[in-house]
Write a structure and sequence with these properties.
Elements lengths: L1 H10 L12 E6 L10 E7 L3 E8 L5 E8 L4 E4 L1 H4 L8 E4 L4 E17 L5 E3 L3 E2 L3 E3 L12 E8 L11 E8 L4 E2 L7 E2 L3 E9 L9 E10 L3 E9 L11 E9 L7 E6 L1 E3 L9 E6 L3 E2 L8 H7 L8 E9 L5 H6 L1 E10 L9 H34 L6
Antiparallel strand pairs: 1-2, 2-3, 3-4, 4-7, 5-6, 7-8, 7-9, 7-16, 10-11, 11-12, 12-15, 13-14, 15-24, 16-23, 17-18, 18-19, 19-24, 20-21, 21-23, 22-23
Helix pairs in contact: 1-5
Length: 392
Amino acid sequence: MAAAVGLLLLLLPLPVVAGGGGRRVSLQYNPGWNGSSVNVLHVRAVGAADTLHYVWSSIGGPAVLLLATRGSSSALGIDWSRLLSPDPAGAVWIEPPGSVTHAAAVVFTKVFEYSEAGAQEELFYPTYDLSNFTWASINHTLNHTALTAEFSGVPAADPSGSFSNGSLAFRVTAYEAGGRDEALPSLLHTANSSKVEFVLAGVAPRGNGSRFALQVAAVEEPGLAPALRALRSIDDEYTPTVFEVLSLAAQAQNESSARSFLQWKATAYGSRWPRREDRIRCRSQGLRAADWSLLTSSLVRAYFGDGAGSSHGVSAVNISFGGEEGEVYEEKRFLSWSALLGFGPPPQDTFSPLVISIMAVALGTPVLLLLLGGCVLLCARRRRYSEYEPIN
């Protein structure tokens, strides 16, 4: 039995521990400026030989810059007067010059609401443009111990009154080391990644059975091609009933691994404390090329410049939430979707030691029975022949 189980353990894939080394992570709100009317959050993650910068902002719409640099001394620079002007190009940079090894951005642009109008028709309501939202100060949400912060906003104009008792938020979490979130969808993370959680809470739907979709845009450096990939697995140990993981990754044509990524599981949840029964269906509607004009974020224009539209790639994907009739959100009026973003290849789930042990026992038992059966038959045959005297 032990030999059979050991052989199967060698054949089965071993679990990979999310790591990449630990980092010293710090959060800084509006670095170099004392005001709180706008939001810039600088997450600095220092490693042994490099430093990762995540720069979040709600100016002109929620967005994050992902900047990887050499060494452990790189720093963020901001020209606040230029950043808050109509022409923010050049207002954000990294010191020392030339230390950036990779730069990308993720922008959350719009939220769509729609419902079924017929057998194969959808009724769309006026779009929520996130560049027209009013965002509360994140200063009171900063948690330097848990490494979290929350961007919460409402539309500047809300004629339908849908946000009278609700809000839209992006919750940010940074990581110092690899591990896995305890709460569903239990994302596997590394020290080279951070998490963002999109939350709709208390927002009144404008139709019966309304569903929502979040538009996400990505900016990549010249020479990198974005790709939307879906990875399916038979293992739903950490996220019950969810068998698909999607990732929007950017990589060069001559490279096998990604430079940066946005990764999520094909699920959202309708509860602040999600359980399996709170699951909301999540679908991605295909990656498409987008125009630079889609990006209204001042932060993105401040770093890449207005002329980057002709050289940098921009792609967009719509991620929709809800069942066929949107009944889960309408009942609970809460929606939460989590995604991981970071540098390098996205982490991949593998079977845990417990699952591997169960599989080894399940597969090893028939092998053991066959071996024992063969031994019993062989011993019985030898015993039968031994009962006769040899003829001389």
